[in-house]
Amino acid sequence: MTAVRLDSVTKVYGNGDSSTTALDRVSRSIPRGRFTAVMGPSGSGKSTFLQCAAGLDRPTSGSVRLGETELTGLKETKLTELRRERIGFVFQGYNLLPALSVTDNITLPLRFAGRAADRAWLAEIIRRVGLDGLLHRRPNQLSGGQQQRVAIARALVTRPEVVFADEPTGALDSRTGAQVLALLRQLVDELGQTVVMVTHDPVAAAHAHSVLFLADGRFVDELLAPTADQVAARMTHLGEW
Ligand SMILES: Nc1ncnc2c1ncn2[C@@H]1O[C@H](COP(=O)(O)OP(=O)(O)OP(=O)(O)O)[C@@H](O)[C@H]1O
């Protein structure tokens, strides 16, 4: 089963002599219910892939489908609605609202969508991310790891088809980062959540079921059940291209 499908997706920034082809006819299925990591050297197109796959940016050409929905033809309002209701986002910088409590941060996507909270689901995700007892705090009263857990709970609250994570542990120390990655993996293994994570870090990528490698805007390799050493070795090889 496919969560997201890219067909011949090309993204060109700029035009003429100063143009950059960030994605070059990328065709790829992201499987449902799996944790997929995307790696590649700096400038290989990881962020561009995430932006296009998650409907944050539009490809120059090609097709992106979320489930049965073709994103490339959607009007901006429909695309915004789709992102809000069917996709969850986790960023390196957490992106929490400082004036809101943990609970209000988590339920914000529901308020934007005009949906009532499913109390049982809310309790379940709060328990899973380990935020019981912290619900009335503001983000600045939490550690980085706790803030990222709030962001993960917020990403899950609408029961999205896919969670896209962009360097989710980039701002965390390695121990806290490992806990956050273990949590993401648990959400996949126990709840069937689909997670797609862009990262520079082989240790982070090793938490995924599979790692896709980008080089110069193309997927050039894949590792299943990766170890950090294998991922690091593959990255070294890519750097030598
Ligand atoms: N808004 C933009 N305008 C022009 N060029 C861009 C823009 N965004 C990205 N690029 C170029 O597209 C290519 C791919 O960039 P992208 O950010 O997707 O790579 P990345 O793999 O995420 O890099 P990093 O690991 O350094 O974050 C790079 O050559 C980059 O310079």
From TrEMBL:
GO terms for cellular component: membrane protein complex; plasma membrane. One of its GO terms (molecular function) is ATP binding. The keyword Chloroplast does not apply. CDD domains: ABC_MJ0796_LolCDE_FtsE. Keywords: ATP-binding, Nucleotide-binding, Transport. Gene3D superfamilies: P-loop containing nucleotide triphosphate hydrolases. InterPro entries: AAA+_ATPase, ABC_transporter-like_ATP-bd, ABC_transporter-like_CS, ABC_transpr_LolD-like, MacB-like_ATP-bd, P-loop_NTPase. It holds the Pfam family ABC_tran. Residues 4-241 form the ABC transporter domain. This is Putative ABC transport system ATP-binding protein. The lineage of its organism: Bacteria, Bacillati, Actinomycetota, Actinomycetes, Pseudonocardiales.
